[in-house]
Every structure is written in C-alpha cells, then in structure tokens.
Amino acid sequence: MNSALGAAGELAIRSLIQRAPLASSLAQAFKAKGFTLALVGGPVRDAILGRLGNDLDFTTNAPPQESKKILQTWAENIWETGIAFGTVAGKRADTTVEVTTYRDEEYEPDSRKPEVRYGSDILGDLSRRDFTVNAMALELTGAAPEFIDPFNGLEDLAKKVLRTPGRPGDSFTDDPLRMMRAARFASQLDFEIEPDVLTSIKDLAQRIAIVSAERVRDELIRILISPNPRAGITILVDTGLAEIILPELPKLRLEIDEHHHHKDVYEHSITVLEQAIMLEERLGGPNLVIRLAALLHDIGKPKTRNFTDGGGVSFHHHEVVGARLVKKRLQELRFDSHTVEAVERLTALHLRFHGYGDGEWSDAAVRRYVRDAGDLLAHLHVLTRADCTTRNKVKAVRLSKSYDSLEARIAILMEQEELSKIRPDLDGAQVMAILNLKPSREVGAAMDFLMELRLDQGLIGEERASAELLNWWENRGTK
Where are the alpha helices (DSSP H) in 387-440? Predict the structure, then answer.
C-alpha cells in the first residue's frame, strides 16, 4: 500500500471507527466463521470525504445463506428481500448494513434484472462497480484493515471525476441505471464526468428504457434533493436520458426565432427550482414536492404555445394542461399518490396569484385562494415567489411587495375567521332539518351553495345562513 493509499486508508478507518463502531464487531462475526468482510463502495468514498453515515455496504466471500445466519446473531432485525441477488440486510442500534456476496453479474441486453453469478474474490467484485470512486474497499477481517483501490479511485476522488473501472459501454450495458447515477453524483458531490463516459451515456441513453420505473424514480429523487440539482438535470437533458424518462423537460427548450422573442422556458424552470430551494426554510428544509413543482410547473407550455400578431407568444391555460401532464408523468414514474396529487395541484394553482392582477384582493378572493391551496398553502407561497425570474428589478420588487400584501391579508383573515378550516355556517344535519330532506344530491347542492356563500361573505351566522338557504331553495329553479 503506497503512502497515498495508506493515508486514505487510515482516514477511512478513523472515520469508520468514529461514525460506525459496530462495523468492527460485524467483521469479527464474519471472521469467526472463516469468512472475509470489507466495507465497500459509497461508504468508503464517504469515509474518505469525512461524511460517512450510518448506512454501510459490505462485500464478503460468504454465501448469502451464511451471511443471513451471521446477521441473525449480530443484528436486532434483518431482512432478506435482496437475497436472490446475494444481499442480506440488518440493523443494529442506529446502523443499517447490507452484506452482499462477491458478485460478477451481467444483464441481458433487454432485461431489467441481472443474472447474478457469485465471484471468487473482491477484485472481481470491484471491477463490476459503477465508477472508480465507488470501487474502493476497506478489508476488515485481515490482521490489520487493508485499503484496496485497484482502479485508482482515490486519484479520481481527489480530481472529482467520474470514470468507470472498465469500458463505459460495458458498464452501462450491464446496468443502464448507472448513467443516471453519474448525473446524481455530479449533483451530490460536484463531480465532473470523464469525456469518454459522457459520450458513452449519449450513445446508450435509449437503454434507460429497460430500467424499472421505480429505480428511475429513486435516482431522479436523489438528483432533485441534492445540493445542486441543476448539474444532474442538465446532464439528463444534454445526454438524451431525459427524453426517455421525463420527455416533458427537454421539450421546454422551445425554439426562439428572430420574430418571436420569449423566455427560454427550460432555463426559467431551472431558475425557479433554484429560487424555490432558497426559500425551502419556510417548509422546514429540503422538500421533494416543492422541487418537483418548481421544475415541472410550466410543462404545459409547449402544448399551449400560440404566436400572436406583433411577434408575441401566449400559453393560455398552460397550468391546466400542465397539471394533467404532471399527474400522468409522475404516475408513470410510480410516485406515491400524495406526491402526485400535491404537485398536480400546485401546477394547477401556480398562476392564481397573477390572475388577480395588481389590484386589492377581495376577502372572497383570499378565501378561495386559501381554500384551493389547502394544506399546500405554504408550498404555493414558495412556488409563487420562486416563479418570479424577471430581470426587471422594479417589476420584481413590485411583485414581491404585492405577494407580501397577500400573505398579510391571509394572516388577518386566518385570525378573524379560522381560514384554514373554512366550513359553511350550517352542517348537513341542519340543512336536512331546515329543508325537510333526506340524504340526497339536493343536500350536497345545498352544502355547495352554503360554501360559496361562506367564501363570498365570510362568517354570517346560522340565522342569516338559514334565511339565505331557504331563499336559494325557493328560487333554485327560476334561473
């Protein structure tokens, strides 16, 4: 082991001991049964960077069933959902571990799942890793911990460059998701992608289509929640990956000719995302829903673009079209229903503030804004503020002050009327008693009338609400 490797190994060992002391006891458990165990991949990289967490990956020469037996004696809980691929996981205290038997796996060209073959040594296992910075290991069961770096991952880590252990085309053919992981590491770690690797991604981008939607979704989430999602998103778009997994995104790069000048919607969307991130403290920190909504809020524009006389362009009802597109795309990517519904609603509402112009908002307008936003009101505040990307400082200040005024109005009405719990002045039982009705559509229509009355006029009390209800009921067929 040369001095550079020795220093890196010592750093990784110190970090491992400080941040994950249970790893050594796990190594001893494997050693006692005659097997090897090495910390491998991302945790080694992160240990060297001084950012090791409590999720640790190990590789071993023990067969999966033997790993399971050892983990059953070491961990408080284990799960074996990945045992068919050689992986057994367990948790002890705050440390979660995954132990995988040395692998030498290959993907069939059109298969989503690898054919797993167990390897005979750790070097073969490391040669199958995605990038050299993830192909380093820390062997823990020898006489002393040994740092293993057969592909110069340490040097690439220092240079902040992503390179594959072997030929990029072989790596991406084996597992196309590695192309998205390259974009993710660029976002998470501020790494550059080696030119040959980037070329290979462009050449093989179509292969991402064979990867399951769930795996694609998880990588997309990691990119979006990273410190610099612009870097990863740009790679997805520039390499052609986005055309397969999120085709609405590259379509935002609308053609701009000499007669029709308008903003680059793609660049605008990335800027909105970055500005939303700067406002995330309002939401308690990194927030997937607001990041998705910021990135995708304008995806209805390509379908609604219309050139007008005089060289202008319009996107009428792009928020409605965009909401439908967002729902369809996120469902296809297997996002959970809560996330899909939230991003869909924010997309549909993102223009609502501008629909009221610069005039003073009526109380009724404020109530409807709050009612329609519901539990996403704070998200809508962030999205609406982030959506201002004008370079006109005077306009930007005016829009900011206007939204300040709206938030102040909401706060006042919240205090006066419990605006977050908008309900009619009468409930369903009272409506049925007043109108002598049984449960029916008519009761629902009456409740809708009372809700509109509540939104228009605020709290009016049961007596007046009853009178208004009777008047509506008597005249409901005269329109």
Answer: 393-417, 428-435
Phi, psi for residue 140 in degrees, rounded to 5: -110, 0
Distances in Å between the alpha carbon of 189 and those of 186, 193, 229, 292?
6, 11, 11, 21
Same domain? For 232 and 131 the reply is: no
Asked whether residue 147 is assigned to any structural domain, the reply reads yes
Query: Do 56 and 155 belong to one domain?
Result: yes
The whole-number pLDDT of residue 149 equals 93
Residue 220 and residue 211: Cα distance in Å, rounded? 13
Q: How far is CA 335 from the centre of its chain?
A: 9
Q: Which of 279-288, 370-379, 401-410 has the lowest mean pLDDT?
A: 401-410
> How does pLDDT run across 217-242, given as a tens digit for each residue?
999 999 999 999 999 999 999 999 99
Which structural domain, as residue segments, surrounds residue 183? 161-245
Which of helix, strand or coil describes residue 76? coil
CA distance 291 to 275: 10
User: In the chain, how many domains are there?
Assistant: 4
Rounded to two decimals, the pTM is: 0.82
